[in-house]
Amino acid sequence: MWLREPQTMAQVVWGLLFLGLMAMAHGLQKGDDLLNVCMDGKHHKYKPGQEDNLHQQCSPWKKRACCTASTSIAAHEDASHLYKFNFSHCGMLTPACKRHFVQDLCLYECSPNLGPWIQPVNSSWRKERVMNIPLCKEDCNMWWEDCKTSYTCKENWHKGWNWSSGINECPVKAACHPFSFYFPTPTSLCENIWSRSYNASHSYGRGSGKCIQMWFDPAQGNPNEAVAKFYANSSAPDIFSWGCSFPFLTLLLPLLLRA
Q: What is the pTM of this model?
């Protein structure tokens, strides 16, 4: 039998070892590919880079941004050239409420830390979107608290608008009510308003390393970098991942020593 030939046995074991190491390298590279990236969206840069003049609430990302300065300025404007989206479709949002939507848009346009949640999408205006970003519970709760007295006419802002005027308007028979009518809980707001772009994190808060902050103090560093790395390294537990390759190599080592 060929397994009884020492030289051949050694060659087989070394070959398997090489394949295992290549699989681990592939898995690690797969995780790295999800870090420091920009999605293929309407206004995103091809790759992140320094942007010294990012505007106001987008400024935390200036050291490494997927948005330009002009995009950051437009993110603060109603019905801007970005998407012609009118946040005040049922009257002006309170300043505190509007601030959360600006933060949300800055995160979407500027952050290079959303790679683990980027998904391909069949759309006329973008090729990728984000889904199920684990939003820190404080961010979700504050968003809801600050917006519950502002008014809207829909629970899903991604689709179903009347665009006949060139900007979004409430559909016929869609009545304006306080946010709390369409979004009775923080989770319903964070998860439904942008078609599951966010997943409301009930277990993890700021500082946990397991949820994304919508905004942060750049003087304290970007906490979302560590969060993206955590999810990138723990994603795709397939045959090429470290989690599967390491046990394989552990079993292979005794055979190598015997060969």
A: 0.79
